[in-house]
Design goal:
The complex is a heterodimer of chains A (about 120) and B (about 110). By secondary structure, chain A is mostly beta strands. Helices cover about 0% and strands about 50% of the residues of chain A. With about 110 residues, chain B is mostly beta strands. In chain B, the strands form two sheets. In chain B, strands 2, 4, 5, 9, 10 and 11 form a six-stranded mixed sheet that branches. In chain B, strands 1-3-8-7-6 form a five-stranded antiparallel sheet, with no helix packed on it. Classes of the chains: A mainly beta (about 120), B mainly beta (about 110). At the A-B interface, strand 5, strand 9 and strand 10 of A face strand 4, strand 5, strand 9 and strand 10 of B.
């Protein structure tokens, strides 16, 4: 069964450093998303991406964040200068916008980001 | 008022019990309703997806949506210890595109 994969599973970085989180969405999916979940809190939407551009973003997704689809398979989230409060699980998700399944988003296992 | 609310639990039931998990929401524009299961330190796993009001059944799982009451439910029949997880509801409406608003989750523990 196809699945979303994410690397690394755990990333430790120092405050102020740049990090890139990587995702490989399901191959025939066209919409890609990033969510985050701070420990013990709810899953929060960050950004959606379609046709090589951002389609929606939340207030959390400020200028420190960027997304890219550098090739036909990878989807990345970059945080330019990490802060302590960026420590969270980051989930990538993907969906295929066909009738009846537009809202079936499939999540990856997450990358745990720890900023020290 | 929070947009989507869930009883955080933990909810403990004996194996074989029928489990009822619920979410309430405030935004009447929500039209798409999803239930996800999340094991500890794992990604959310899609269980059920419904559009607008009504029921949907898939194996031991039944999802109900009551838009007039702004209330959705997930029922699990013949619960198993492997059902022990956090259950998240999520919802969306056209103004949000495909971006979901998640509830905080209900932690379920099924005791053997």
């Amino acid at each position: 069964e196809p699945e979303v994969t994410q690397t690394p599973s755990h990333q430790v970085t120092q405050m102020g450093q740049e990090v890139i989180l990587r995702c490989v969405p399901i191959s025939n999916h066209l919409y890609f998303y990033w969510y985050r979940q701070i420990l013990g809190q709810k899953v929060e939407f960050l950004v959606s991406f379609y046709n090589n551009e951002i389609s929606e973003k939340s207030e959390i997704f400020d200028d420190q964040f960027s997304v890219e689809r550098p090739d036909g398979s990878n989807f990345t989230l970059k945080i330019r200068s990490t802060k302590l409060e960026d420590s969270a699980m980051y989930f990538c998700a993907s969906s295929v916008p066909t009738s009846g399944s537009s809202y079936e988003q499939y999540f990856g296992p997450g990358t745990r980001l720890t900023v020290t | 008022q929070k947009e989507v609310e869930q009883d955080p639990g933990p909810l403990s039931v004996p194996e074989g019990a029928i489990v009822s998990l619920n979410c309430t929401y405030s935004n009447s524009a929500f039209q798409y309703f999803m239930w996800y299961r999340q094991y500890s330190r794992k990604g959310p796993e899609l269980l059920m997806y419904t559009y607008s009001s009504g029921n949907k059944e898939d194996g031991r799982f039944t999802a109900q949506v009551d838009k007039s009451s702004k209330y959705i439910s997930l029922f699990i029949r013949d619960s198993q210890p492997s059902d022990s997880a956090t259950y998240l509801c999520a919802m969306s409406h056209p103004l949000y595109g495909q971006n979901f608003v998640f509830g905080p989750g209900t932690r379920l523990s099924v005791l053997p």
